[in-house]
Amino acid sequence: MRYLPHTDDDIAAMLDAVGVKSLEDLFETVPLDCRRTRDPDLPGPLTEWELTDRIAVSAENTAGPPDYKVYLGAGSYEHVRPASVSYLLNRSEFSTAYTPYQPEISQGTLQAMYEYQTLTARLLGMEAANASLYDGASALAEAVLMAGRVTKRTSVAISGVVHPFYRQVVKTYVQSAGYKLTELPYTEDGRTDLSPVDNMDEPAAVVVQSPNFFGCIEDLSEVEQKAHELGALFVTAFTEALAYGLLKSPGSLGADIVCGEGQSLGIPRSFGGPGLGIFTTLTKYVRRMPGRVVGKTRDLDGKQGFVLTLATREQHIRREKATSNICTNNSLCALTAAMFLASLGGTGIRELARLNYDKCEYLKRELREAGCTISFAGPTFNEFVVRFPKNDASMYDRLLAKGIVAGLPLARYFPELEGCFLVCVTEIKSKADLDVLVREIAS
Amino acid sequence: MKKIKELNLPGSVRYAEDHEWAKLGNGTVVVGISDYAQDQLGDITYVELPAVGDSFEQGDEFGTLESVKAVSELFMPVGGDIVAVNEDLGESPGLINEDPYVGGWIVEIQPSDLKELDALMDVDGYVEMLRGFE
Q: Chain A residues with CB inside 8 Å of B66's CB?
């Protein structure tokens, strides 16, 4: 889609058509104290070459790969993006990020979304998926609202080791809808302490994230038991979709809603966005599910076709009783994830996930031997919490000076974890990279 | 859409403003939607039913009807407990279109106050209300 700014003549013609003299007159009905009295304080326009220079300077101030070895995960992961994915994405048939307004005319787009739904549902072991939401955090917020609709209850237990940003978004979404959130503490091994759930009065959902913010894999069978005992939905989120190439799928462990971030599946990190909200559930709940859904059907001549289906849940039909106000999806990112999953195939995804796990275990072991403390004993996938030898937090800055970003300092989100860092290792890091990191820490 | 004179509106049931009908049987009240309502909705594709044992006041929402392009809530014509639901609608929601007063019944209620039934419209009152929509 092109950006076409209005010329002065265009603006004059439009003002003339509605019968006002100036833009000032047009906005007259807006009360003065709601109006900005002066233009925003922005720098003036630049030439193309000035702009290029400026961006280059900004880029030089950023500690990113390949100049730096970055061990940051925490919701955004550095993974391989197969050339097949970038090639396919550049095809003009696909490179629109929007649900077409007359969707059924774009059978190719709908088929791609249908395949995305099939692939994500399979990855997570669930029965149904929607055509995607904005990102992992908003998907989780929608899941909490959906659990409320299904159970007609309003109190929700949410693990304190769900990503802090996700918890913030959930809070923003649900607090005005009358939900009461109870945050669950974490145990010594870095997993969710479910015991407070017992004292809750009819929770709508028990919400965890696995692997959780500390990288630890939650005991989902225990969550399932606890949630279903109380008639609550078992909702589980993820920030690292690739983990389910290796871990037992939440669906096979009895989850009612599984949702999270799909960035790992071929989407570049791009300074934190756009992401991909993966949302899956069970068939019996699809009428309570938010978002768009593509279905497969047959036309009058018996030929296969794809349609947007179950639209009666959505706000253009259901108005204030709609399941959510989401009436779009992140098509291009969903398409990327579908291409990524299809490019790797089941075996490839398992192997890639295995590489992450193995490299992470290797680094954990080497760091421990180098005198680091691994803070939590819970099993992990490709992230873990570490404390440097002699609790020397200044190590972080020394490593940064040597071109290594040694994870995310956790104290900002968990004050009690002052001096702890969340370290992520993906397939991208070579054994040599990991050995350099360990050597630098040991020296 | 049918014209008013083409509608099948039996005199043996009472009608609510939201187009549900209610019929007193052996102490219980059977509820469905009128021929007018099914005609307006078009092909019904899904019926969301309450559970047996649920109890509602008059006017409470007790379920939803989903047709190809719309969803409508169902409201209790009289208050009471749900004693039976029409399970056939799960497989064949179209029964409401084909046979709104017999095969397409929706729920059976143990009414808490039969006076609420008297307050509903008879067929003449209902036809008069529908004329107002024309």
A: 287, 312
CA distances in angstroms from B67 to A125, B47, B48, B72, B96, listed in the order given:
31, 9, 12, 8, 11
Tens digit of each residue's pLDDT (9 = 90 or more) over A312-323? 788 777 777 788
Cβ neighbours around A424 below 10 Å, total: 26
How far from chain centre, in Å, is Cα B91? 19
| CB atoms A287 and B73 under 8 Å | no
- Residues A312, B48: C-beta atoms closer than 8 Å: no
**Cβ A35 vs Cβ A24: under 8 Å:** no
Taking the C-alpha atoms of residue A226 and residue A180, their distance in angstroms, rounded to an integer, is 19
For A129-142, the DSSP string reads: E-S-BS-HHHHHHH
On chain B, the residues whose CB falls within 8 A of the CB of A312 are 66-67, 69-71
* E strand residue ranges, A31-178: 69-70, 128-129, 155-159
**What interface predicted TM-score (ipTM) does this complex get?**
0.74
**Residue B14 φ then ψ, to 5°:** -100, 155
Asked whether the beta carbons of residue A317 and residue B46 sit closer than 8 angstroms, the reply is no
The predicted-structure confidence for A113-130, as pLDDT tens digits, reads as follows 999 999 999 999 999 999
- CA-based nearest residue in chain A for residue B73: A321
**Contact call for residues A385 and A420 (beta carbons, < 8 A):** yes
